[in-house]
Specification:
Number of helices: 7
Helix content: 10-25%
Low-confidence stretches: 1-31
CATH architecture of one domain: Beta Barrel
Distance between the termini: 55 Å
Number of strands: 13
Largest sheet: 7 strands, antiparallel
CATH topology of one domain: Thrombin, subunit H
Shape: globular
Mean pLDDT: 88
CATH class of one domain: Mainly Beta
Strand content: 25-35%
Order of helices and strands: HHHEEEHEEEEHHEEEEEEH
């Protein structure tokens, strides 16, 4: 009986993990009903389950805590190296066929056959550029799903694309940025929102403008609120303690427009 209870608890845990409400026992007499009991699974099953039930996204906290939020968002950050430059990227999408990485166009314009993407577990893969925006400092790469093992894939998460956290930002709110200058997702700096919608002449666009620090090589990384909600992609900084990030609203529209044009 104890073994059966442990197995049942494990099944309930998996159901909760993937967002499925466990079935309610409606009868006390179930002894004569026999169903197959799945006791093992594969990494492929786990990844495909994540994709099917929305488990590929970084889940924001229910409370503000930068330290805990940072631990959650690290799985959505990568490092990008070209033959001349190095920078960062965020995992934008994980699906059945490919992984999509978002990064800065000023980094991806240098993409060549020697360029590569490094994940947090040290896996290095190549990729193919699918978009370099004509209007923003933004580009997207895709990686075939077979470039990583399923065991590696289950450790990856994509940043959220919900825009409410960005749209409700207030001046003075605390945020933090994560990049891969010193290693994948190893660089983290806190900042304060100066303006969520400020025109930056160097990028000829309205961006998330913050008072904070960023080092070279963090471009393409993520900027998050204290709950771990993705606010935008870090685009640059100054020696005077200022950073700018491309808002998630812009990134989402550019990606959706690209997909529509591909149809």
């Amino acid at each position: 009986m104890k073994l059966h209870l442990k197995i049942f608890a494990g099944i309930v845990f998996c159901l909760i993990l993937y967002g499925i409400t466990p079935l309610v026992m409606v009868s006390a007499r179930q002894d004569n009903i026999r169903r197959p009991l799945i006791q093992t699974t594969t990494f492929r099953d786990e990844y495909e389950g994540m994709v099917s039930y929305g488990g590929t996204y970084i889940r924001a906290l229910d409370y503000a805590d930068i330290e805990e939020a940072y631990e959650r968002v690290k799985s959505g950050i990568v490092k990008i190296n070209t033959s001349r430059l190095h920078g960062s990227g965020v995992i934008w999408e994980l699906n059945e066929a490919e992984i999509v990485i978002a990064s800065s166009a000023h980094l991806l314009t240098d993409w060549d056959t020697d360029s590569y993407i490094m994940f947090g577990n040290g896996t290095i893969v190549s990729g193919e550029i699918i978009l370099l925006s004509e209007s923003y400092d933004l580009g997207f790469l895709k990686i075939g799903i077979d470039e990583l093992t399923y065991e590696e894939l289950v450790g990856c998460r994509q940043v959220g694309r919900e825009v409410i956290a960005y749209e409700t930002l207030q001046d003075g709110d605390a945020v933090f940025s994560v990049g891969s200058s010193d290693g994948v997702a190893l660089d983290r700096y806190e900042a304060t929102v100066a303006s969520a919608h400020w025109y930056i002449q160097e990028f000829d666009s309205y961006m998330l403008y913050c008072f904070g620090y960023a080092k070279p090589g963090m471009s393409g990384g993520g900027t998050f609120d204290t709950y771990g909600n993705f606010l935008g992609m870090l685009s640059g900084g100054t020696g005077g303690g200022e950073t700018v990030s491309l808002p998630v609203t812009v990134m989402k529209k550019e990606y959706e427009d690209m997909k529509k044009n591909d149809m």
